[in-house]
């Protein structure tokens, strides 16, 4: 059985996918970008602001599934510029006081809406 998880505090998907799918106690969260869910505007004045919005969206989706950041076991980070790795890590680290999830960070040529960072996650209850 799978259950579709949707949070009004995270942006509506911009394609044929769901924000997240819960299957057998595992939550698969689609890549999140820094769109303001109320206005649809990109929130990308700085890479730190952009990353903060992405992390908040992940948190909103986790909460909708009855979870929090401590339930994340794996994250994938896609960035346009590896030169921003340290700034992204600075924001990302604030959400994991102990035992952060496994992850990879990959530099890519382009992301949806030409954003600088996209993060997806897998969480377990």
TrEMBL record:
One of its GO terms (cellular component) is cytosol. It holds the Pfam family Ribonuc_L-PSP. GO terms for molecular function: deaminase activity. NCBIfam families: Rid family detoxifying hydrolase. Belongs to the RutC family. This is Endoribonuclease L-PSP, putative. The lineage of its organism: Bacteria, Pseudomonadati, Bacteroidota, Flavobacteriia, Flavobacteriales.
